[in-house]
Design goal:
By secondary structure, this protein is an alpha/beta fold. Helices cover 42% and strands 23% of the residues.
């Protein structure tokens, strides 16, 4: 049975699946690989049953995903935008946001993948602009300095902070409520003071974002809904 092994300072072995259905095994450094293999084999029935269930859920989401045609509703900072796809004699796509409408101008033959890529590029651009402003604002409040901001499509996290002071954010955060986005930005900036999740770290987060627990809970319960394209 194939799986991705991640070793760390954790105390026990854990098995999970990522969003693509890949089996992930996390284990302590001190556990031998052959013992990890034995543990995984002992969980074979659960792994197979879970893999089937997750596959069915992914297939259901695939059937229910947006067609990215006129009439679809797209989120932006918790607001809803009505999508209008306008097909024209053009070689390059363009997106314009007018009040509560998102106008997507595409070539006549633009298929789903083309429209999806166009929309993702627009979301990424918006995410970089908005997150950059928020990071500058909250960094001044916290008295910290960061290097670069990168917008990524991270599979298992919403943000990260490197030891060199670079901040990484998942572009899909731009579709979440604005307060949720603020929390993730604050969270990563606080790592510039505390590169851990100690009590001091969470106290610093709470000093800027008093309701961070509710926002963190929103991401846990609704974050999967941001992967609709």
């Amino acid at each position: 049975m194939e799986y991705q092994l991640i070793k760390s300072k954790r105390k026990s072995i854990a098995i999970s699946f990522d969003r693509d259905g890949n089996l992930i095994v996390k284990a302590p450094y001190f556990v031998r690989n052959r013992d990890i293999d034995a543990f995984v084999r002992s969980k074979e029935d659960w792994i197979e049953a879970t893999a089937i269930r997750l596959k069915r859920e992914r297939e259901k989401k695939e059937r229910e995903r947006l067609k990215l045609e006129s009439g679809d509703i797209l989120p932006l900072l918790g607001n809803q935008l009505l999508l209008s796809v306008i097909r024209e004699d053009r070689s390059r796509a363009k997106i314009t946001c007018v009040r509560e409408r998102l106008l997507m101008y595409v070539p006549y033959d633009a298929d789903y993948e083309y429209r999806q890529n166009t929309l993702e590029k627009w979301y990424r651009k918006e995410a970089l602009a908005i997150i950059s402003k928020k990071a500058a604002y909250y960094a001044e409040m916290l008295g910290v300095r960061y290097e670069d901001i990168h917008i990524k499509d991270q599979k298992s996290r919403w943000g990260s902070c490197s030891g060199k002071g670079n901040l990484n954010f998942n572009w899909r955060l731009i579709m979440a409520p604005e307060q949720v986005l603020d929390y993730v930005v604050i969270h990563e900036l606080c790592h510039l003071r505390h590169m851990d999740h100690s009590r001091e770290f969470w106290e610093l987060v709470e000093s800027i974002c008093p309701f961070y627990k509710q926002l963190k809970k929103w991401l846990k319960e609704h974050g999967e809904s941001l992967y609709f394209i």
